[in-house]
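Moderator note: this is an archived Q&A kept for reference. The question asked for a predicted structure of one protein chain; the sequence and the answer are reproduced below.
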Amino acid sequence: MSKKKKFVLENIAIESYAAEGKCIARHQEKVIFVEGVVPGDKATIFVHRNKKDWAEGKVNQITHFSENRVKPFCSHFEICGGCKWQMLPYHLQLQYKEQQVKDQLRRIGRVEIQEFLPIKGCEQTSLYRNKLEFTFSNKQYIASKDLHTDLSSDKNVLGFHAPRLFDKVIDIEFCHLQAEPTNAIKNFIRSFSYENNLTFYDIRNHHGLLRNLIIRLSSLGETMVNIVFGEPDQDKIKLVMEAIALKFPEITSLNYTINTKLNDTIYDLEVVNYAGSVTIEEKLENFKFKISPKSFFQTNTKQAEELYKVTRDFADCKGDEVLYDLYCGTGSIGIFLSKNVSKIIGVETVEGAIEDAKKNAELNNLTNTHFFAGDVIKICNHDFFDKNGHPDIVIIDPPRAGCHETLIQKLLELKVPRIVYVSCNPATQARDLALLSVNYHISKSQAVDMFPQTHHVENVVQLNLK
């Protein structure tokens, strides 16, 4: 292969799926990782990263389409980065996700998994999200195919950030990720803003009235809307909020937030309830959950139930155990397992999430749950375990970066009889399993698909003390 850093390869066959949405092609002695293709395609590839043993490339043109392809259902498919696998039939999406988990646990973790259970797929492969966040911007993203048209980048748009571009937004007319009234609300606000000459946020220069739109739907038919404004103009804010309230009386929780900071996070800001209730209600099996505008909740409600069922099966509780739920968020996993154990101890860094967890436990009339706010690796010391009881089972559900090594060492010291590790990133999960395997058998693994049309996958692993 050429020693140049960047070059083009013609009509290269795509052989197999790798991971993280990439496929494998080969040229001479090198493996090339390519995005935007499926096994069976042939493509002209622009190699933009060339290392000694491998290379990365992107597609210039697909010269032969794989028989495995299906027609994408979204008009924004090729430019929006949200659902990159729409061209793959769903059974192949599941096959590749399951393969990804197995490969990463075996190759990165280098541990023996005693049993791989089949991946749990979604019954609903579109309109499955209960939360979406849209961005207002005065800079429209123009796809390369439209560069020579009369489309202007200086246009107020409402949609999603263009992949790898912080200051450009794709104008989204219809999104297939969330059910109505989401698109109706989004499109009304955009049209109303045009008619009233309201300013859209300038992401680069940090000014403009309309900044973000967050919509949540619950499976019980409730709707929450939070408009984030970039300027504290109360007259214009009232104009927008009143128009939405009149047009969509079905909104059960209508809120707004003023954010004049440089970043988009609202967790340190006040959310003002304009109309309706402060929260909406969700349900998993027979458990109820109050969700506030700043609450974390799994974004696919139906699959969250499946994920938690696998977690409960892997915990294999007998009824008298002390269960620790680390990185517990708003307490949903612990609450879901609360009927099967004598005591739940939940720990989470975000104080607001712990407050939600306590409210949710009270809502479900639970007396055996105890939630603590603080850094897991600082809170979980010997005094904490002596005070709250030695864990019989530990559930860990860390962020994408995985567990801190200090927590891994603490678990190895404690010799907890059983650990259930829930992960949104099988690569970091594999790394942690390699460390835990010193004292633990890796008994079971089961992937759960939470996000159809994407390469993302959750995985649950059961570990038993040797």
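Archived answer notes: The first helix runs from residue 90 to 109.
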